[in-house]
Amino acid sequence: MATNAKGQEPRKELTMKTIFTLNFVNKSIVGTKSAIARANKCLEPEYSELCALLEKHPSFKVEVKKIDQNKEKKTYHGLSFQAMEDYISTQKNSKEMLAKFRRLWKLQKQRVQSTL
Fold it and tell me: Which H or E run contains 30?
């Protein structure tokens, strides 16, 4: 194995990301909803990692990770292409803007279809 300038072996890169985390304060194994669902279906690597953690920490309980919701997030419920066209049609240069909007809409549709 090659060594660096100081004669040390190079650091091995971490290739496996942690699926579950341990919370020693609450004595729990925390995982995402999808990771726990995959482990329940005995799918790898989630199942084997959860089994290993439960074997090492039998008194721990399994919990779903709580994701903080941003209450201040601005969302556009009900915004559709028709609503955008209606708004654009109320502007001064609506014909030009609608033509540009429809070209962009068509390009976006093509881009999405090409990725499928």
Answer: strand 28-31
CA atoms of 52 and 98, how far apart (whole Å): 59
Nearest to 50 by CA among 88, 16, 18: 18
Distance CA(101)–CA(39), nearest Å, equals 46
Give the bridge partners for 63, in sequence order. Answer: 30
Q: Say how far apart CA 43 and CA 48 lie, in whole Å.
A: 8
pTM of the predicted model, to two decimals? 0.50
- Measured CA to CA, the distance from residue 46 to residue 52 in angstroms comes to 10
Angle between helix 81-88 and 94-115 (nearest 10): 160
Contact present, 31 and 39 (Cβ < 8 Å): yes
Q: What is the pLDDT of residues 82-104, one digit of tens each?
A: 888 999 999 999 999 999 999 99
Alpha carbon distance 95, 87 (integer Å) = 12
